[in-house]
Amino acid sequence: MEETRFGFLNVNNQTTYKDLNISYNDVPKSPQGPTYNQNIKIPAGTGKLSFKDPAGKTVLETAFSIEADKTKELILFQPVADLKPVVLENNQKEEPKPQKGYLKIKAANFAIHAFKKSIDLILYYDDPLTGDRVEFANLKNVSPEFKDYQTFRYPGDLSADMQFSVMIVDSQSQEPLLDWYTSVTATLNKSVYTMYIKENTEGAAVLGTPYFVTVESLFAD
Fold it and tell me: 25, 32, 197, 213 — which has fewest CB within 10 A?
């Protein structure tokens, strides 16, 4: 009889559900605490990964596969309360780094009430010497799902502390949709980013609506 081999699963819970139980092929694996569970032992191969609330109701269920002796990093992700959670695998560390002086960026729009039209996400470098705001990235038609990375030349110093100024515009008219720029924090010496837009209780006001939005960095490598 062939010996069962196992992989390992780390789960970061970023949802409004603070007490979830993790099951694999309907076998309980671990109580899910408020934030993080590490080294959950999973039989190698393909199966069904489930997250259930304390009453046993399934919050999310997905097909899942893992290789023996490998570890996968998952985020149970729910940027706003009225969106269904999704499972994201943090495989960004495997993404090839861009050449020196460049950034790789992808983004998703989860501000589903604030923006009813197609939007572009524009990032700027704020030159500390001249005070100029220089556009360096324009991500077109940002949707509620993550697409492929895009590569952009960054005019500043990636080894210095930095924030990117952000404006969101209408994809067709290119008119600004925010009352003023917002920002997203960059990470020292990181060049690959996964970002998302979400509704918040503060941040930049969306013109003509009661909503505020922020832009967050989900992964930085």
Answer: 25
What is the C-alpha separation between 43 and 33, in angstroms, rounded?
A: 22
List the strands of the sheet with 212-220, edge to edge: 150-153, 102-109, 192-200, 212-220, 204-205
At residue 84, φ and ψ (nearest 5 deg) are: -70, 135
Q: CA separation (Å) from 200 to 78, 122, 169, 197? A: 13, 19, 18, 9
Total number of residues shown for the chain: 221
Burial class (CB in 10 A: 0-12, 13-18, 19+), 174: exposed
- Per-residue pLDDT tens over the stretch 56-77: 899 999 999 999 999 998 999 9
Average pLDDT, the chain: 91
pLDDT at residue number 113: 93
Q: Which tens digits make up the pLDDT trace of 31-58?
A: 655 556 788 899 999 999 999 888 889 9
The three-point CA angle 158-160-163 to 5° equals 80
CA gap 84, 125 in Å, rounded:
34
Contact 30, 56 (CB under 8 A): no
